[in-house]
Amino acid sequence: MDDSQESAVETVELEVVYRDEYFIAVNKPAGMLVHRSWLDRHETQFVMQTLRDQIGQHVFPLHRLDRPTSGVLLFALSSEFAAKAAPMFAEHQFTKTYHAIVRGWIEEGDRLDYPLKKEQDKIADKFASKEVEAQSAITDYQPLAKVEVPHSTGRFPTSRFCLVEMQPLTGRKHQLRRHMAHLRHPILGDTSHGDGKQNRLFRYVYDAKRLMLHASKLEFVHPYTNENIVIEAKFDEVWQRLLKEFGWKSGFE
């Protein structure tokens, strides 16, 4: 590889938001895969490998975030620590808090108990049974702020958006995105379950070319020290700009 090729691959410096002798957490950038996948063979940067190179030791993922989602991502620093902590995720002993910008105004918070069928991948699940039962999926959500902007995406002269805080009580694939879509308040930037016209408005008017979903906080009782651990991740530049534009406060700036 010549110098021009080397410079074409920009090295990402991950923001470490928590570290002790057992675990490390980073603020995952939007658009970055957690680890290598044969489904994304063209990708060259992954959180797991980048973090390993950054701190000079292997890391073991305890959970995942979808590629377009940013925020708190926790790793164990040994396979032994991973084996200890992984069941805690399976048993939902970690409290996860997310923030999202959604279409429309949500007037009051609630708990959505709406089962979801497993989303099958066109390639990975090509030969899997198409008859799958819906699995329990529960999300608590709370509106924090709302705004009306002078831009039309349809029959109304304005558009309305809402800042929402969410806590998934289960861990289904794309649960928050699918639950918000079910409520008819899809998350902005969601190309799979969202509103194409609103997504285009965010891209071209607000230069927001990402899914507006962020894993803001992770809380758990440390399995080795029994301390109550709270890990927070701040919003990226796109989020910061939109919060300022809309006059919103979230506590995670």
CATH homologous superfamily assignment: Pseudouridine synthase
Characterize the main sheet: 10 strands, mixed
Q: If you consult CATH, what is the topology?
A: Pseudouridine synthase
Q: Which ranges are low-confidence, i.e. pLDDT below 50, for 5 or more consecutive residues? A: 1-9
Domain count, please report it.
1
List the topology elements.
Elements: H1 3-8, E1 15-19, E2 23-28, H2 47-55, E3 60-61, E4 70-76, H3 79-90, E5 95-103, E6 110-113, E7 138-149, E8 159-168, H4 175-182, H5 196-204, E9 213-221, E10 228-232, H6 237-246
Parallel strand pairs: 4-9
Antiparallel strand pairs: 1-2, 2-4, 3-4, 5-8, 5-9, 6-7, 7-8, 9-10
Please provide a written account of the structure.
This protein has 253 residues and is an alpha+beta fold. It has a single domain (10-246), classed as Pseudouridine synthase (2-Layer Sandwich). It has helices at 3-8, 47-55, 79-90, 175-182, 196-204, 237-246, and strands at residues 15-19, 23-28, 60-61, 70-76, 95-103, 110-113, 138-149, 159-168, 213-221, 228-232. Strands 1, 2, 3, 4, 5, 6, 7, 8, 9 and 10 form a ten-stranded mixed sheet that branches. The radius of gyration is 19 Å and the shape is globular. Residues 1-9 have low confidence and may be disordered.
